[in-house]
């Protein structure tokens, strides 16, 4: 069934930057595609969506989000298949998650047609910005914030929902050294760690910087109450293979429900790999390591899909993981997810959504 898509007022740029796009020297998040989608919420309703040239927005110094943190975002990618078709990966899940974040932060939910049609029409207009190279993609950043100029502490009555895009290179990250964080906390039960809230990121920068200075690429966050249980790795979900079983922390109010996480678990289940979503004690990882049963550890997220962990340091002891080439399951999953996105493998779960 073909449903009518909503009408979006579109102003096409007269100064495209596409000719200056240098795929060889692409730095993540530094170059932006020509257009953006902008939708205002005011008088209790979402207003007419607009697509316009990418550019600055004007804000009051009293803008609510800048003071009281009503700000959140999503992260997703568009891919170009070898035949030149532009596709999205599970965009409905980003829309649903955005609204979960919105509810937690007392912000208005975004109607599905505004999100999906706005997203598709924007990416279709900037389709030439989706690089047609293995591993490359167009990173998409939907976000929303309280835009009302207001110093009273209450939910804003005006919001902006914006989507803009940035071409991203084939992300091959070196395996990372991580440390178990037992002092700082990313999120606590009852807080808003499950929401993709700007504030979660603001609070994680200092601990990440300190870890960097100690020679670690990334932090493994532990629970805020006891620091005994594993939560996430940096801004990714984290998974382990222990004695042939794929194990990851169960979702909670302090863990973000990654779409990559869900996809990885689904593939593993499809393949008959034992999967456990449960609480994981740091001590369990240390014990598994000592027993020679810790076969893999990796982060999952849209940016890198799978980020292999090279070593985990816990109370000064560095646990060395097996060479990446030996990590059968995580390598197989990374390849399969790429193949599904680029149309090279079947898509039994209907994850891939064509844009044009
Ligand atoms: C975005 C994010 C993830 C990964 O989510 P994906 O949907 O897989 O990209 C994991 N943890 C945190 C804290 C995040 O913000």
UniProtKB/TrEMBL annotation:
<feature type="modified residue" description="N6-(pyridoxal phosphate)lysine">
    <location>
        <position position="196"/>
    </location>
</feature>
<dbReference type="InterPro" id="IPR036038">
    <property type="entry name" value="Aminotransferase-like"/>
</dbReference>
<dbReference type="InterPro" id="IPR001544">
    <property type="entry name" value="Aminotrans_IV"/>
</dbReference>
<dbReference type="GO" id="GO:0052656">
    <property type="term" value="F:L-isoleucine-2-oxoglutarate transaminase activity"/>
</dbReference>
<dbReference type="GO" id="GO:0009097">
    <property type="term" value="P:isoleucine biosynthetic process"/>
</dbReference>
<dbReference type="GO" id="GO:0052655">
    <property type="term" value="F:L-valine-2-oxoglutarate transaminase activity"/>
</dbReference>
<dbReference type="GO" id="GO:0009098">
    <property type="term" value="P:L-leucine biosynthetic process"/>
</dbReference>
<dbReference type="GO" id="GO:0009099">
    <property type="term" value="P:L-valine biosynthetic process"/>
</dbReference>
<keyword id="KW-0100">Branched-chain amino acid biosynthesis</keyword>
<keyword id="KW-0028">Amino-acid biosynthesis</keyword>
<dbReference type="InterPro" id="IPR033939">
    <property type="entry name" value="BCAT_family"/>
</dbReference>
<keyword id="KW-0808">Transferase</keyword>
<protein>
    <recommendedName>
        <fullName>branched-chain-amino-acid transaminase</fullName>
        <ecNumber>2.6.1.42</ecNumber>
    </recommendedName>
</protein>
<dbReference type="InterPro" id="IPR043131">
    <property type="entry name" value="BCAT-like_N"/>
</dbReference>
<dbReference type="InterPro" id="IPR043132">
    <property type="entry name" value="BCAT-like_C"/>
</dbReference>
<comment type="pathway">
    <text>Amino-acid biosynthesis; L-valine biosynthesis; L-valine from pyruvate: step 4/4.</text>
</comment>
<keyword id="KW-0032">Aminotransferase</keyword>
<keyword id="KW-0663">Pyridoxal phosphate</keyword>
<dbReference type="InterPro" id="IPR005786">
    <property type="entry name" value="B_amino_transII"/>
</dbReference>
<comment type="pathway">
    <text>Amino-acid biosynthesis; L-leucine biosynthesis; L-leucine from 3-methyl-2-oxobutanoate: step 4/4.</text>
</comment>
<comment type="similarity">
    <text>Belongs to the class-IV pyridoxal-phosphate-dependent aminotransferase family.</text>
</comment>
<dbReference type="Pfam" id="PF01063">
    <property type="entry name" value="Aminotran_4"/>
</dbReference>
<dbReference type="GO" id="GO:0052654">
    <property type="term" value="F:L-leucine-2-oxoglutarate transaminase activity"/>
</dbReference>
<comment type="function">
    <text>Acts on leucine, isoleucine and valine.</text>
</comment>
